[in-house]
Amino acid sequence: MKWSEICVHTTQLAVEAVSNLLHEVGAQGVVIEDVEDFDRMMAEDHFGEIWDVSDRETYPTSGVHVKAYVPASGDFQDLLSNLKKEIERLRTMLDIGSGDVTVAEIDEEDWAHSWKQYYKPVKISQQLTIVPLWEEYTPQPEENVILLDPGMAFGTGTHPTTMLCIQAIENYIREGDHVIDVGTGSGVLSIAAAKLGAASVKALDLDSVAVESARQNVETNGVGELVQVDTGDLLKGVEGEYDLVVANILADVILLFIEDAYARTKSGGRFITSGIIGEKRAEVTNALVAAGFEIEETRVMEDWVAIIAKKG
Ligand SMILES: C[S@@+](CC[C@H](N)C(=O)[O-])C[C@H]1O[C@@H](n2cnc3c(N)ncnc32)[C@H](O)[C@@H]1O
Fold first, then answer.
1. Cβ(189) to ligand 1 under 6 A?
2. Which of 135, 166, 194, 213 has the fewest CB atoms within 10 Å, measured from its CB?
């Protein structure tokens, strides 16, 4: 079977929005080529083990390539013109850079290779290493491994917003904590919380593809007894209180449910929130404080911010 590779050249700021557009028009997986990510991974003691320096030549010298793979079937031209229209609409809201779209035809075998070749085992925090399900990997004795196949859900674990969240969870979680993960995607944050000592984790997502992916990943990692994955719209209908409320969703979505997050956080508990682009930091911080939280810490990676807010 022939597949088409669609490549959009964009900015780091617009990666998630462009990835979403590609998913919406029917892409079967997205590959992100960002030279800054590549250089960071190379610098983090995996040099030569996992990343091959010659791969760097395939990355754009500036900006980011978001690549997606779709069957080269009859309605491909409609899909492409829809995508281009949506990219132009996005341009009115966000700095998307050139937004240039290029197309290449590839064989299925190459597609499988292209989709997975950049997704390798990555140590994402002191204790946790994410390993793609299809990779053979022998962990070090102190390494705690999360096996992941995100499929079409967001959450390879290696996006800065996810890494910030997992590092904060590792820092603040206490043995026996009860955790809720809003917008679980592949389930990566919930699995991390379970592996780091949570007594229970409730994982919610609006998207049925994410719910299915999270359920599979939870089972693969043997934490099905601890993590309950359900469909849910933010914290609507959720009752009870949690030691940790975690959410890696865009700032504009976080702003919608800060008050609900406060209500669902135990006294002395924390709301760990990520997915906040730098320019939205003040707005989210102010809204957290207005809801009654104290800002305990703000972590930054590239253009992204995670805020750890405490309920006194
Ligand atoms: C940026 S991804 C984060 C995935 C994963 N938690 C991680 O950290 O990598 C955001 C997720 O939030 C979900 N989402 C968006 N709006 C939502 C809503 N209103 N209620 C629940 N989930 C939502 C999306 O479907 C997506 O899976």
1. yes
2. 135
How many Cβ atoms sit within 10 Å of the Cβ of residue 231?
11
148 phi/psi in degrees, rounded to 5:
-140, 135
> Per residue in 17-52, pLDDT tens?
999 899 888 776 688 888 887 777 666 644 444 455
Q: pLDDT tens for residues 53-86?
A: 666 777 888 899 999 888 777 688 888 999 999 9
Separation CA 215–CA 222 (nearest Å) = 11
74 burial type by CB count under 10 A (0-12 exposed, 13-18 middle, 19+ buried): exposed
- Please report which confidence band the pLDDT of residue 110 belongs to, taking 50, 70 and 90 as the band edges: low
CA of 300 to the centre of ligand 1 (A): 20
Task: Report the nearest-CA residue for atom 8 of ligand 1.
Answer: 162
Whole-number Å distance, alpha carbon 248 to ligand 1 midpoint, is 7
Q: What is the pLDDT of residue 237?
A: 97
Residue range 247-284, pLDDT digits in tens? 999 899 999 999 999 999 999 999 999 999 898 999 99
Q: What integer is the mean pLDDT of 163-180?
A: 97
3 state DSSP class of 188: helix
Give yes or no for residue 234 CB within 6 A of ligand 1. Answer: yes
Contact 143, 195 (CB under 8 A): no
| Best CATH choice for the domain 2-116 from the list 3.30.70.120, 1.10.3720.10, 1.20.1250.20, 3.20.20.70 | 3.30.70.120
Q: Which CATH number fits domain 122-311: 3.30.70.20, 3.30.1490.190, 3.40.50.150, 3.40.1190.10?
A: 3.40.50.150
List residues forming the annotated binding site for S-adenosyl-L-methionine.
Answer: 162, 183, 205, 248
